[in-house]
Amino acid sequence: xxxxxxxxxxxxxxxxxxxxxxxxxxxxxxxxxxxxxxxxxxxxxxxxxxxxxxxxxxxxxxxxxxxxxxxxxxxxxxxxxxxxxxxxxxxxxxxxxxxxxxxxxxxxx
Length: 109
Prior knowledge:
Pfam families: Rieske. By secondary structure, the chain is mostly beta strands.
């Protein structure tokens, strides 16, 4: 695994989703309660951009079908739902390890 610089700590505001790229992978980066998390940017259900979603606690919520994923583990907290139609998430969200060193943020790929 290689750790790739994706941002500086000054670029990441608390609970604000930031789109980043590492080795050609489109990721989201976020800081929640002082801890940085990185995950795939596309919702594993239908591929919608999660950076347009919401952060609720330590989870990211897809703006399209309201599926919710734990930012630390990627586990599905809530399956997708559209109006009264319940669906099943296709997979967990892929997450990546994050390191911070001297104000720089690195993601393990």
